[in-house]
Amino acid sequence: MTQPTVDELARQIERLSTDEREELLNRILLMPAEDQAAIDASWLAEAERRLDAIERGEDRPVPWEQVRGELGLK
User: Fold this and answer.
1) Is 41 in the same domain as 23?
2) What is d(CA 19, CA 24) in angstroms, rounded to the nearest whole number?
3) What is the mean pLDDT of the chain?
4) Each residue's pLDDT tens digit, 24-34
5) Are residues 27 and 43 in the same domain?
6) Rounded to an integer, what is the distance from CA 68 to the centroid of its chain?
7) What sign does the dihedral 7-12-15-17 (CA atoms) show?
8) CA-CA distance, 72 to 30, in Å (whole number)?
9) What secondary structure letter does DSSP report for 10?
10) Contact at 8 Å (CB) between 12 and 4?
11) Is residue 5 over pLDDT 90?
12) Do 14 and 49 belong together in one domain?
C-alpha cells in the first residue's frame, strides 16, 4: 500500500470534526523531528540572543496582555 499524498491527507483532515482536528494537530506538534536536537539548539540560541538584546537595552519585552489585545484575543 502506498502512502497518501499531502493533498489526500488534507482532504481527509477536512472531513474531521473540529475536536478531531485539534487532537491531530496536538499529536503532530508533539512528534519529535528527526533533527530535534538541532531544532532545540536553534531555539535555545534564539532565546539567548533575545535575552542578550534585552539585557543590552536594544530590545524590550512586550507584556502578554498587550500582545493579546493587539491580536484581538480575549
Assistant:
1) no
2) 9
3) 94
4) 999 999 988 89
5) no
6) 17
7) negative
8) 27
9) H
10) yes
11) yes
12) no
Domain identity same for 43 and 64: yes
> What is the rounded CA–CA span in Å between residue 47 and residue 41?
10
Q: Which domain holds residue 41?
A: 34-74
Within this chain, do residues 38 and 26 fall inside the same structural domain, yes or no?
no
Would you say 13 and 24 are in contact if contact means Cβ atoms under 8 Å apart? yes
The contacts of residue 61 (CB under 8 Å, 6+ apart) are 54
Dump pLDDT digits (tens) for 44-74. Answer: 999 999 999 999 999 999 999 999 999 999 7
Query: In the chain, what is the straight-line distance between the N-terminal and C-terminal CA atoms, in Å?
Result: 46
18 and 43 housed in the same domain = no
Indicate if 61 and 26 belong to the same structural domain: no
Band the pLDDT of 1: cuts 50, 70, 90. confident
Note the residue count of the chain: 74
> Residue 46 and residue 34: Cα distance in Å, rounded?
20
